[in-house]
Structures are given as C-alpha cells and as structure tokens.
C-alpha cells in the first residue's frame, strides 16, 4: 500500500481570495507525490520533494512564503523522521536557506545529531552544498502586505511507500514571533513523528501543540482507535487546553486521519485505489 497526505496549514484563512489557489496547489502536490511513489521513489525522497514544492510556493508559511519575525526577517524550522529507523533530522532558526527541509534531511542522514540550530545549522548546510538565497528572496509583495497576518500556513507531508512511513514538516513559524522563537515544527513528537505503525505532522500554534505533544499523542489512542478517530481525539485534547491547530496522519495500512479545530485546514491525500481527496475551508 502506498499513500500520501499533505497539508498547507490550519488557521482562519483571513485572505479568502487565496483559498482556491492554495487548495488547488495542495492537491497538485499530493498528486505529484503519489506519482513519485508510483515511479518507485522511497518515502524520504518523496516527503522531501513535496515539502520542497510547498516551500518554493509563496502562498505557504514555509521557505519562500515564511512569515517574518518581529524584526522583519525569517527564521525557519523544519523536521523529518523515518519511521522505519526512528531516525530524526530537525533544524531551527534558519535564515538564508532556500529549502530548510533539505537541511533537516541532511541532519537525519549525514550528521550524528538530531537537531541543529541557527549559524551551526547553516554551517552544516554550507559544508554540504545546499542552496542559499539572499534576504530579499523572502520579501514577496504578499509577505510585506501581511506582515500583520494570521497563523496557519505551515506545510507538512506524511508518506507511506509500502515499506516505511516518513513525516516531514517545514515552517516560517508564527507572524512577528520573537527573534529566537522556536515552534513545535522542529520538535520531534510535537511537530512531527513517525514509527513503523503511523506517521503524523502538526500545524497551528506551536506553543499549544507542544503542551499536548500532538503528533506523538496519537500513540495514546492508536491502535485501540482507528487512525482517523485517534487524530480526532488528539485535536479534542488540544481543544481541551484551548489550543489551536490541526493534525494529519496515516498508518501502516494507508488509512488516513485528519482533524483541526481552526476554521479550516488545507490538505489533500491519495492512496492506492483511491483518487485525490481534498479538504479545505
Ligand atoms: N506550528 C507552527 C509554529 O508554531 C505554525 C503553523 O503551523 O502555522 O511554528
């Protein structure tokens, strides 16, 4: 069984004019990822490629479209986990890289560490030949216009390639965050988690998500509950602490779970024997 679920953030989507394009794009990304799976690529490769596609799109809060912090520059976070080996790679406070998810993957595959931050993380990127971009790459008209924006456009993917489950996440964090703030996204268990049974990725207010360890929280309920019900219970728990966010997941059999307590969440999934399903606002 091969399956993929991707999301483009949970939130209140104040910028309603952007909704159709964002829904379409998330669907396109899920289809692209599934084609890659069918072509035989493994789940790590697919997860990184689809997250990169979302990072390169200016409408999502990751990579190019990252929200600016209080001082007007980006500090991006990303994480990836291979459920078959429990290998983890995460980065935080990235200012100059085009695709933070590539660096998270490098940390997972080529370093002896799980998390690298700031200058040290960028040094590792440089040593490994990743692509750097100048600050103005991030100053799109949209991002300048919505400097007073809302939360909710982080991107993530969970991929099952028939053997293993991989979860990947990337974000610019919350708008106008304090310099140095790290959200849930690079924190294993909160922003992302995968093992041999299920994989999950969270989005929403990182400070809330960490309190309930949202992605790993599924293991409190799954497999006693289906993955779909387990995810719903996790979001109920998030609501229970007045937290806001969304969660996507899939299990080793390709069953899908998604839930959110924000006004909406952009997501799309596809699996063997089933056409793309899109959800949104
Ligand atoms: N969870 C992300 C953070 O708090 C933001 C988001 O999902 O939109 O950094």
From TrEMBL:
The active site is at 154 (nucleophile). Substrate binds at residues 181-184, 203-206. Keywords: Autocatalytic cleavage, Hydrolase, Protease. It holds the Pfam family Asparaginase_2. This is Isoaspartyl peptidase. InterPro entries: Ntn_hydrolases_N, Peptidase_T2. It comes from the Bacteria. One of its GO terms (biological process) is proteolysis. GO terms for cellular component: cytoplasm. One of its GO terms (molecular function) is peptidase activity. The record marks 153-154 as: Cleavage. SUPFAM superfamilies: N-terminal nucleophile aminohydrolases (Ntn hydrolases).
């Amino acid at each position: 069984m091969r399956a993929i679920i991707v999301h483009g953030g949970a939130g209140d989507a104040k910028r309603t004019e952007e909704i159709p394009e964002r829904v379409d794009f998330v669907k396109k990304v899920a289809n692209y990822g599934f084609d890659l799976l069918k072509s035989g690529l493994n789940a790590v490769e697919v997860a990184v490629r689809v997250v990169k596609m979302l990072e390169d799109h200016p409408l999502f809060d990751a990579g190019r479209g990252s929200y600016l912090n209080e001082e007007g520059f980006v500090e991006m976070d990303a994480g990836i986990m291979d459920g078959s080996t429990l290998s983890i790679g995460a980065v935080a406070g990235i200012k100059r890289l085009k695709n933070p998810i590539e660096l998270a993957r490098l940390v997972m595959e080529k370093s002896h560490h799980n998390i690298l931050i700031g200058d040290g993380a960028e040094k590792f990127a440089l040593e490994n030949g990743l692509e750097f971009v100048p600050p103005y790459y991030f100053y799109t008209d949209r991002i300048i216009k919505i400097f007073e924006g809302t939360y909710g456009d982080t991107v993530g993917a969970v991929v099952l390639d028939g053997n293993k489950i991989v979860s990947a996440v990337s974000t610019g964090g919350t708008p106008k965050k304090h310099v140095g703030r790290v959200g849930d996204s690079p924190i294993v268990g909160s922003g992302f988690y995968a093992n041999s049974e299920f994989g999950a990725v969270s989005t929403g207010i990182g400070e809330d998500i960490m309190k309930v360890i949202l992605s790993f929280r599924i293991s409190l309920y799954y497999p006693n509950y289906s993955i779909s019900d387990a995810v719903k219970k996790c979001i109920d728990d998030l609501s229970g602490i007045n937290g806001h966010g969304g969660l996507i997941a899939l299990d080793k059999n390709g069953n899908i779970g998604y839930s959110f307590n924000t006004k909406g969440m952009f997501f799309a999934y596809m699996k063997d024997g089933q056409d793309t399903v899109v959800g949104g606002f």
